């Protein structure tokens, strides 16, 4: 997605439980490694600058699908998982929330020494992006998170988030080095947040006359043409996942494929032998996060149907399924490193088959029945929320079927 836009990110408080944080780090690493193998570092950096893809990544990792907490938790998980492997992967994640954000200059200077990158220029980019979003754009949001992700080839993305106490919402800002032509003329790939009244935006292209008189951020860069097309990522305030939040045709086709259509379509995919439909469902959504194009991430809530959410929406996190998904990806990555890429190709094939299944698929409207089934069966898959482990329901619904098929 090469557009700028806005989205409502309701504030959610509370820590990620250790059992989920550990899994998020492992899945985040596996997804990253596959993307780096298949598409390269530049593509990975670009994806992080796309707010819909970033939100979908958080949802597939078991975070609350619509909340501001995805930003802090996903970046924290990626930093924990990837930085120990930065020399091997060529990806470095700096900063974070609160005091961690102030460490970005020192972290970038250290990276410069290791890689030969122009650290002073990277520090300048970090400071200018924060200055623009915290000062030049007076939208009522104060930055509390600043992350700078850079490759050893010099491409980078900034993800930072601001808090508006009055509205109880957050606004996330994305920057991308390849798309950046000017720091002072519509530089963002996206701005995610709730529209809340009039905003003084000194980096709007229409503010050029004012800007030229009161703001000079750089002697070397002058305003240029509009960089990106405006796009709106609107995340609703309601916590539960509703049918209107999901592309039912895409979700229904994927469920039909993974639960009903096998094994004919999967005969050649040795990876899938012995894998149950529920794990296949999760793996198909993870596959789309890895291989899907930008237009596939307009409904991040759909990706919550991989591993649920820590607060139980749309259903508790199925930890057994989560672990099997991680194990499958990890094995595929390890085999690919020694030249055996059949498992990675099988995972990619899932995305291709799911998209093909959508062509003539017509979903039914019993969306709530699908969620009921997932919740009733959650205990079978090690379902957990921040409240604890799921137990078998005392009066389980019988004969509940996914009527999306």
TrEMBL record:
InterPro entries reported in the protein's UniProt record: DUF763
Originating organism: Niastella soli
Taxonomy, superkingdom: Bacteria
One Pfam family of this chain: DUF763
Protein name: DUF763 domain-containing protein
Disordered: annotated span: 384-405
């Amino acid at each position: 997605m090469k557009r700028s836009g806005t989205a409502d990110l309701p504030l959610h408080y509370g820590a990620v439980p250790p059992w989920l944080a550990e899994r998020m780090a492992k899945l985040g690493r596996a997804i990253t490694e596959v993307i780096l193998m298949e598409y390269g570092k530049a593509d990975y950096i670009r994806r992080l600058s796309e707010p819909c893809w970033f939100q979908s990544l958080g949802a597939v990792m078991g975070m609350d699908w619509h909340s501001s907490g995805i930003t802090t938790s996903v970046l924290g998980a990626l930093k924990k998982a990837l930085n120990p492997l930065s020399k091997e992967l060529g990806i470095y994640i700096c900063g974070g929330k609160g005091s961690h954000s102030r460490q970005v200059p020192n972290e970038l200077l250290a990276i410069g020494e290791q890689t030969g990158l122009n650290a002073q220029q990277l520090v300048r980019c970090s400071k200018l992006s924060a200055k623009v979003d915290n000062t030049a754009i007076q939208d009522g949001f104060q930055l509390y998170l600043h992350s700078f992700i850079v490759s050893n080839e010099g491409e980078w993305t900034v993800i930072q988030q601001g808090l508006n106490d009055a509205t109880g919402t957050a606004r996330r800002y994305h920057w991308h080095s390849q798309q950046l032509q000017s720091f002072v003329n519509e530089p963002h790939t996206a701005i995610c947040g709730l529209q809340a009244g009039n905003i003084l935006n000194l980096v709007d292209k229409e503010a050029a006359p004012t800007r030229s008189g009161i703001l000079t951020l750089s002697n070397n860069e002058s305003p240029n043409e509009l960089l990106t097309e405006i796009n709106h990522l609107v995340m609703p305030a309601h916590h539960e996942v509703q049918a209107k939040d999901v592309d039912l045709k895409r979700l229904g086709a994927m469920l039909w494929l993974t639960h009903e259509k096998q094994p004919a379509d999967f005969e050649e995919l040795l990876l899938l032998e012995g894998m149950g439909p529920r794990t296949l469902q999760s793996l198909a959504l993870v596959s789309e996060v890895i291989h899907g194009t930008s237009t596939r991430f307009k409904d991040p809530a759909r990706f919550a149907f991989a591993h649920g959410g820590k607060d139980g929406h749309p259903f508790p996190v199925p930890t057994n399924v989560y672990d099997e998904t991680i194990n499958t990806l990890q094995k595929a990555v390890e085999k690919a490193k020694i030249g055996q890429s059949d498992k990675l190709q099988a995972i990619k094939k899932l995305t291709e088959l799911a998209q093909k299944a959508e062509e003539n698929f017509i979903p039914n409207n019993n969306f709530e029945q699908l969620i009921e089934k997932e919740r009733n069966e959650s205990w079978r898959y090690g379902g957990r929320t921040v409240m604890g482990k799921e137990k078998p329901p005392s009066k389980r619904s019988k004969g509940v079927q996914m009527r999306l098929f």
